[in-house]
Design goal:
The protein has 4 helices and 7 strands. The protein is an alpha+beta fold and 188 residues long. It has a single domain, classed as Aminopeptidase (3-Layer(aba) Sandwich), CATH 3.40.630.30. Strands 1-2-3-4-5-7-6 form a 7-stranded mixed β-sheet. The two termini are 16 Å apart. Its EC number is 2.3.-.-. Pfam families: Acetyltransf_1.
Length: 188
């Protein structure tokens, strides 16, 4: 990690580096059997662009020299977002109540393949969440990504359940995770 710098930026900084971010995303995934990488990359660009309008959007970028080697971005969860709609199993009363300041969505965390397994992802994760004021974080994951689920759980995330994908979603359902904040409570 000595040769990697982390920088926290806002939505206004992203358009100038969106192509670099999309390139890092594509590299992080590489070719996946049964998936159309062009469709997946296009869907990512759409998500990344629309996220820029979200409340309290932030991105943390990891660079080695001038190259983006990883990034994480997210934003505050708006009450009208219906993030928890259809959550199974049924959560406790009040769990899905959102105020606009209660929960941060960790929308994307990606590390180029050559940099994976070197602590970049964890550093990005901790830097992003360490700068947030919400009481908890949430993320969505592909239900088949069991190795990723194990990684998240090792970082302290709690699997809450599944929600159906919305029309046009990449997956028919998503796993929802939650992590209590502040970040100093995260296991190492």
């Amino acid at each position: 990690m000595d040769d990697v710098t982390l920088t926290r930026l806002g939505a206004d900084d992203v358009p100038a580096m969106l192509d670099e971010i999309c390139d890092a995303y594509a590299d992080a995934y590489g070719e996946v059997a049964g998936e159309d990488s062009g469709v997946k990359s296009s869907a990512f660009r759409d998500r990344a662009t629309s996220a820029l309008d979200a409340r309290n959007y932030e991105i943390v970028v990891a660079r080695n020299g001038q190259q983006i080697v990883g990034f994480v971005f997210g934003y505050s969860l708006r009450p009208e977002r219906e993030w928890w709609k259809g959550l199974k199993p049924e959560p406790p009363s009040g769990f899905t109540t959102e105020t606009g300041d209660r929960t941060v969505v960790l929308a994307e965390i990606e590390v180029r393949r050559a940099w994976q397994g070197r602590g970049v992802g964890r550093a990005l994760h901790d830097a992003f969440l360490g700068g947030r004021s919400e009481e908890r974080a949430t993320l969505a994951s592909n239900p088949a990504a069991t190795a990723t689920h194990a990684l998240y759980e090792g970082w302290g995330w709690i699997k809450i359940g599944t929600v159906p994908g919305r029309p046009g979603s990449y997956y028919p359902e998503y796993i929802r995770f939650v992590l209590p904040l502040p970040v100093q409570n995260l296991p190492r």
